[in-house]
Amino acid sequence: MNPRFATDVITFYHPGFWAVESAEEVRERALLDARGFWERVMDTLAATEVTGIELTFAPGDVDSALRAFGGAGAFRHELAARGLEVVSAFIADSDAPDWRRGDNLPEIVADAERRAAFLAEAGGELLVTGLPMRTTYGTRPPFFVDAAYMTRMADIAHAVGEAVSRYGVKLAFHTESNSTLWYERDIDLFMTLTDPRYVWLCPDSCHIALGGGDPVSVARRHAPRIALAHWKDAVAPIDVHLTVDDTVYAQQQPYMAELGTGMVDWQGWADAMSRTPGADTVLIELDEAADPVSALRAGTAVARRALAA
Protein backbone atom coordinates (compact mmCIF):
# COMPACT_ATOMS: atom_id res chain seq x y z
CA MET A 1 0.00 0.00 0.00
CA ASN A 2 1.50 3.32 -1.11
CA PRO A 3 -0.89 6.07 -0.05
CA ARG A 4 -0.43 9.78 -0.50
CA PHE A 5 0.40 11.59 2.72
CA ALA A 6 -1.49 14.68 3.79
CA THR A 7 -1.69 17.03 6.75
CA ASP A 8 -3.98 19.63 8.24
CA VAL A 9 -2.92 23.27 7.82
CA ILE A 10 -3.06 23.52 11.64
CA THR A 11 0.37 21.87 11.53
CA PHE A 12 1.71 25.31 10.54
CA TYR A 13 0.01 27.38 13.26
CA HIS A 14 2.82 27.20 15.84
CA PRO A 15 4.11 30.71 16.68
CA GLY A 16 7.69 29.41 16.69
CA PHE A 17 7.42 28.44 13.02
CA TRP A 18 6.66 32.08 12.21
CA ALA A 19 9.13 33.56 14.73
CA VAL A 20 6.36 35.30 16.67
CA GLU A 21 5.18 35.02 20.27
CA SER A 22 1.52 34.03 20.04
CA ALA A 23 -1.19 32.37 17.97
CA GLU A 24 -2.87 35.75 17.64
CA GLU A 25 0.24 37.12 15.94
CA VAL A 26 0.20 34.20 13.51
CA ARG A 27 -3.41 35.04 12.57
CA GLU A 28 -2.64 38.75 12.24
CA ARG A 29 0.35 38.07 10.02
CA ALA A 30 -1.66 35.76 7.77
CA LEU A 31 -4.47 38.30 7.55
CA LEU A 32 -2.06 41.01 6.43
CA ASP A 33 -0.29 38.76 3.92
CA ALA A 34 -2.47 35.78 3.00
CA ARG A 35 -0.40 34.93 -0.05
CA GLY A 36 2.83 34.97 1.94
CA PHE A 37 1.23 32.68 4.53
CA TRP A 38 0.16 30.13 1.94
CA GLU A 39 3.38 30.27 -0.05
CA ARG A 40 5.43 29.47 3.04
CA VAL A 41 3.11 26.60 3.95
CA MET A 42 3.32 25.20 0.42
CA ASP A 43 7.08 25.61 0.13
CA THR A 44 7.58 23.88 3.49
CA LEU A 45 5.34 20.97 2.51
CA ALA A 46 7.29 20.60 -0.72
CA ALA A 47 10.33 19.71 1.42
CA THR A 48 8.53 16.65 2.86
CA GLU A 49 6.80 13.51 1.58
CA VAL A 50 3.44 15.14 2.26
CA THR A 51 1.58 16.13 -0.88
CA GLY A 52 -1.98 16.70 0.36
CA ILE A 53 -3.53 19.38 2.56
CA GLU A 54 -6.71 19.77 4.54
CA LEU A 55 -7.90 23.36 4.89
CA THR A 56 -9.31 24.30 8.26
CA PHE A 57 -10.25 27.37 10.32
CA ALA A 58 -8.47 30.69 9.83
CA PRO A 59 -5.84 31.45 8.81
CA GLY A 60 -5.65 28.26 6.72
CA ASP A 61 -9.26 28.41 5.56
CA VAL A 62 -11.17 28.71 2.30
CA ASP A 63 -11.58 32.47 2.59
CA SER A 64 -7.85 32.94 3.20
CA ALA A 65 -7.01 30.92 0.07
CA LEU A 66 -9.43 33.05 -1.93
CA ARG A 67 -7.88 36.28 -0.62
CA ALA A 68 -4.41 34.99 -1.43
CA PHE A 69 -4.99 33.71 -4.95
CA GLY A 70 -8.31 35.13 -6.10
CA GLY A 71 -10.00 31.83 -6.82
CA ALA A 72 -10.01 28.08 -6.24
CA GLY A 73 -8.53 27.40 -9.67
CA ALA A 74 -5.56 29.67 -9.06
CA PHE A 75 -5.05 28.09 -5.63
CA ARG A 76 -5.05 24.65 -7.24
CA HIS A 77 -2.49 25.83 -9.80
CA GLU A 78 -0.14 27.12 -7.07
CA LEU A 79 -0.37 23.81 -5.23
CA ALA A 80 0.17 21.76 -8.37
CA ALA A 81 3.28 23.75 -9.22
CA ARG A 82 4.80 22.32 -6.03
CA GLY A 83 3.45 18.80 -6.47
CA LEU A 84 0.68 19.38 -3.92
CA GLU A 85 -3.11 19.00 -3.92
CA VAL A 86 -6.16 19.67 -1.79
CA VAL A 87 -7.56 16.60 -0.04
CA SER A 88 -10.28 18.09 2.11
CA ALA A 89 -11.59 21.10 3.99
CA PHE A 90 -12.61 21.06 7.65
CA ILE A 91 -15.53 23.13 8.95
CA ALA A 92 -14.88 24.28 12.51
CA ASP A 93 -17.98 24.89 14.63
CA SER A 94 -16.81 28.43 15.40
CA ASP A 95 -16.64 29.20 11.67
CA ALA A 96 -20.05 27.98 10.52
CA PRO A 97 -23.78 28.24 11.29
CA ASP A 98 -24.80 26.59 14.56
CA TRP A 99 -26.43 23.19 14.06
CA ARG A 100 -28.18 23.41 17.45
CA ARG A 101 -30.42 26.35 16.57
CA GLY A 102 -32.96 24.34 14.65
CA ASP A 103 -34.24 27.21 12.49
CA ASN A 104 -31.28 27.82 10.18
CA LEU A 105 -31.06 24.79 7.90
CA PRO A 106 -31.01 26.89 4.69
CA GLU A 107 -28.05 28.86 6.11
CA ILE A 108 -26.22 25.65 7.06
CA VAL A 109 -26.75 24.14 3.60
CA ALA A 110 -25.74 27.33 1.78
CA ASP A 111 -22.52 27.56 3.80
CA ALA A 112 -21.66 23.94 2.98
CA GLU A 113 -22.47 24.44 -0.70
CA ARG A 114 -20.12 27.42 -0.87
CA ARG A 115 -17.29 25.33 0.56
CA ALA A 116 -18.13 22.37 -1.67
CA ALA A 117 -18.02 24.58 -4.77
CA PHE A 118 -14.55 25.78 -3.75
CA LEU A 119 -13.39 22.23 -3.06
CA ALA A 120 -14.64 20.91 -6.38
CA GLU A 121 -12.78 23.62 -8.30
CA ALA A 122 -9.67 23.25 -6.13
CA GLY A 123 -9.54 19.50 -6.74
CA GLY A 124 -10.70 18.27 -3.33
CA GLU A 125 -13.46 15.76 -2.71
CA LEU A 126 -14.13 15.78 1.03
CA LEU A 127 -15.87 18.25 3.31
CA VAL A 128 -15.12 17.32 6.92
CA THR A 129 -17.21 18.61 9.80
CA GLY A 130 -18.23 17.59 13.30
CA LEU A 131 -21.23 17.63 15.56
CA PRO A 132 -21.74 20.39 18.17
CA MET A 133 -19.82 20.29 21.42
CA ARG A 134 -21.16 18.87 24.65
CA THR A 135 -21.73 21.20 27.59
CA THR A 136 -19.57 21.14 30.71
CA TYR A 137 -20.49 18.22 32.93
CA GLY A 138 -22.78 19.38 35.73
CA THR A 139 -24.23 22.33 33.80
CA ARG A 140 -27.90 23.01 34.58
CA PRO A 141 -30.17 22.42 32.81
CA PRO A 142 -28.34 19.30 31.60
CA PHE A 143 -27.80 18.63 27.91
CA PHE A 144 -28.25 15.00 26.86
CA VAL A 145 -26.87 13.35 23.74
CA ASP A 146 -29.88 11.11 23.24
CA ALA A 147 -31.80 9.58 20.35
CA ALA A 148 -33.88 12.71 19.82
CA TYR A 149 -30.77 14.90 19.58
CA MET A 150 -28.97 12.51 17.24
CA THR A 151 -32.05 12.25 15.03
CA ARG A 152 -32.03 16.04 14.58
CA MET A 153 -28.32 15.95 13.75
CA ALA A 154 -28.90 13.12 11.26
CA ASP A 155 -31.63 15.13 9.52
CA ILE A 156 -29.26 18.08 9.08
CA ALA A 157 -26.44 15.79 7.97
CA HIS A 158 -28.68 14.28 5.29
CA ALA A 159 -29.62 17.71 3.94
CA VAL A 160 -26.00 18.86 3.86
CA GLY A 161 -24.65 15.58 2.52
CA GLU A 162 -27.14 15.54 -0.34
CA ALA A 163 -26.44 19.19 -1.18
CA VAL A 164 -22.65 18.81 -1.39
CA SER A 165 -22.93 15.52 -3.30
CA ARG A 166 -24.18 17.58 -6.24
CA TYR A 167 -20.66 19.07 -6.43
CA GLY A 168 -19.01 15.65 -6.33
CA VAL A 169 -18.04 16.19 -2.69
CA LYS A 170 -18.53 13.76 0.21
CA LEU A 171 -19.52 14.91 3.71
CA ALA A 172 -17.51 13.17 6.46
CA PHE A 173 -17.85 13.59 10.23
CA HIS A 174 -14.87 14.04 12.55
CA THR A 175 -14.81 12.49 16.04
CA GLU A 176 -13.78 15.57 18.07
CA SER A 177 -13.02 15.34 21.81
CA ASN A 178 -15.79 16.69 24.05
CA SER A 179 -18.15 16.91 21.09
CA THR A 180 -21.39 14.98 20.68
CA LEU A 181 -19.53 12.62 18.32
CA TRP A 182 -16.76 11.56 20.71
CA TYR A 183 -17.55 8.33 22.53
CA GLU A 184 -17.79 5.04 20.67
CA ARG A 185 -21.49 4.98 21.47
CA ASP A 186 -21.96 8.44 19.92
CA ILE A 187 -20.29 7.32 16.71
CA ASP A 188 -22.27 4.08 16.48
CA LEU A 189 -25.59 5.86 17.11
CA PHE A 190 -24.97 8.63 14.57
CA MET A 191 -23.77 6.27 11.88
CA THR A 192 -26.79 4.01 12.44
CA LEU A 193 -29.15 6.95 11.99
CA THR A 194 -27.54 8.29 8.82
CA ASP A 195 -27.69 7.16 5.20
CA PRO A 196 -24.35 5.70 4.02
CA ARG A 197 -24.87 7.21 0.58
CA TYR A 198 -24.67 10.75 1.94
CA VAL A 199 -22.89 10.61 5.29
CA TRP A 200 -19.31 9.39 5.77
CA LEU A 201 -16.95 9.13 8.73
CA CYS A 202 -13.57 10.77 9.41
CA PRO A 203 -12.35 9.06 12.60
CA ASP A 204 -9.55 10.67 14.55
CA SER A 205 -7.44 8.04 16.34
CA CYS A 206 -6.34 10.47 19.05
CA HIS A 207 -9.75 11.88 19.92
CA ILE A 208 -11.42 8.48 20.07
CA ALA A 209 -8.68 7.29 22.45
CA LEU A 210 -9.06 10.44 24.57
CA GLY A 211 -12.70 9.48 25.11
CA GLY A 212 -11.70 6.06 26.41
CA GLY A 213 -12.56 4.37 23.14
CA ASP A 214 -10.66 1.94 20.93
CA PRO A 215 -9.82 3.65 17.63
CA VAL A 216 -9.07 0.35 15.92
CA SER A 217 -12.43 -1.16 16.89
CA VAL A 218 -14.26 1.93 15.64
CA ALA A 219 -12.35 1.83 12.37
CA ARG A 220 -13.11 -1.84 11.84
CA ARG A 221 -16.82 -1.48 12.60
CA HIS A 222 -17.29 1.47 10.28
CA ALA A 223 -14.67 0.67 7.64
CA PRO A 224 -17.07 0.83 4.65
CA ARG A 225 -17.97 4.45 5.51
CA ILE A 226 -14.53 5.88 6.30
CA ALA A 227 -13.69 8.37 3.56
CA LEU A 228 -10.69 9.83 5.40
CA ALA A 229 -9.03 9.46 8.80
CA HIS A 230 -6.88 11.70 10.97
CA TRP A 231 -3.77 9.84 12.15
CA LYS A 232 -2.86 11.29 15.54
CA ASP A 233 -1.54 9.88 18.81
CA ALA A 234 -2.81 10.24 22.37
CA VAL A 235 -1.02 10.13 25.71
CA ALA A 236 -3.94 8.75 27.73
CA PRO A 237 -7.72 9.08 27.99
CA ILE A 238 -8.98 12.35 29.41
CA ASP A 239 -9.70 11.43 33.03
CA VAL A 240 -11.37 14.67 34.13
CA HIS A 241 -14.38 16.70 33.05
CA LEU A 242 -12.99 19.64 31.11
CA THR A 243 -14.71 23.00 30.96
CA VAL A 244 -16.30 23.16 27.52
CA ASP A 245 -15.76 26.72 26.37
CA ASP A 246 -13.38 28.58 24.05
CA THR A 247 -10.42 27.14 25.96
CA VAL A 248 -11.38 23.48 25.64
CA TYR A 249 -9.01 22.85 22.72
CA ALA A 250 -6.08 24.19 24.73
CA GLN A 251 -7.17 22.05 27.69
CA GLN A 252 -7.09 18.94 25.50
CA GLN A 253 -3.61 19.64 24.14
CA PRO A 254 -1.59 17.98 26.94
CA TYR A 255 -3.34 14.68 26.19
CA MET A 256 -2.18 14.65 22.56
CA ALA A 257 1.11 13.35 21.15
CA GLU A 258 3.07 12.99 17.93
CA LEU A 259 2.69 9.70 16.10
CA GLY A 260 4.49 6.81 17.74
CA THR A 261 4.90 8.48 21.13
CA GLY A 262 1.49 7.63 22.59
CA MET A 263 -0.99 4.80 23.12
CA VAL A 264 -2.56 4.27 19.68
CA ASP A 265 -2.09 0.80 18.15
CA TRP A 266 -0.70 1.94 14.81
CA GLN A 267 -0.40 -1.49 13.25
CA GLY A 268 -4.04 -2.25 14.07
CA TRP A 269 -5.11 1.19 12.87
CA ALA A 270 -3.15 0.87 9.62
CA ASP A 271 -4.66 -2.57 8.98
CA ALA A 272 -8.18 -1.24 9.54
CA MET A 273 -7.55 1.80 7.33
CA SER A 274 -6.32 -0.39 4.48
CA ARG A 275 -9.86 -1.80 4.23
CA THR A 276 -11.63 1.56 3.86
CA PRO A 277 -12.62 3.72 0.88
CA GLY A 278 -10.16 6.30 2.21
CA ALA A 279 -7.20 3.94 2.16
CA ASP A 280 -5.32 5.93 -0.46
CA THR A 281 -4.74 8.89 1.89
CA VAL A 282 -2.93 9.05 5.24
CA LEU A 283 -3.57 12.39 6.91
CA ILE A 284 -0.96 13.04 9.61
CA GLU A 285 -2.43 15.51 12.08
CA LEU A 286 0.01 17.56 14.15
CA ASP A 287 -1.43 20.44 16.12
CA GLU A 288 0.97 23.37 15.75
CA ALA A 289 4.41 21.93 15.07
CA ALA A 290 7.33 24.29 15.71
CA ASP A 291 9.36 22.32 13.15
CA PRO A 292 6.79 21.00 10.66
CA VAL A 293 9.33 19.34 8.36
CA SER A 294 10.85 17.19 11.11
CA ALA A 295 7.48 16.42 12.66
CA LEU A 296 5.92 15.40 9.35
CA ARG A 297 8.91 13.26 8.42
CA ALA A 298 8.70 11.49 11.77
CA GLY A 299 4.94 11.01 11.40
CA THR A 300 5.14 9.58 7.89
CA ALA A 301 7.89 7.20 9.03
CA VAL A 302 5.64 5.84 11.79
CA ALA A 303 2.76 5.44 9.34
CA ARG A 304 4.96 3.71 6.75
CA ARG A 305 6.21 1.19 9.33
CA ALA A 306 2.66 0.46 10.46
CA LEU A 307 1.43 0.03 6.90
CA ALA A 308 4.34 -2.24 6.01
CA ALA A 309 3.66 -4.45 9.03
Explain what the structure shows:
With 309 residues, the protein is an alpha/beta fold. Helix content is 42%, strand content 13%. The chain has 12 helices and 10 strands. It has an 8-stranded parallel β-sheet. Helix 6 links the parallel strand 4 and strand 5 (170-174). Helix 5 (105-122) packs across helix 6 (147-165). The longest helix is centred in the middle third of the chain and has 19 residues, at 147-165.
Summarize the structure.
The chain is of the alpha/beta class. Helix content is 42%, strand content 13%.
Spatial order of the strands in the main sheet?
Answer: 6-5-4-3-2-1-10-7
Cα radius of gyration in angstroms: 18 Å
Measured by DSSP, the beta-strand proportion falls in 5-15%
Main beta-sheet strand count, sense and barrel state = 8 strands, parallel
Structural class: alpha/beta
Helix content: 40-55%
Oligomeric state of the chains present here: single chain
Euclidean distance between termini CA atoms: 11 Å
Compute the number of helices: 12
Spatial shape: globular
Uncertain stretches of 5 or more adjacent residues: none
Order of helices and strands: EHHEHHEHEHEHEHHEEHEHEH
Number of strands: 10
**Averaged pLDDT, please?**
96
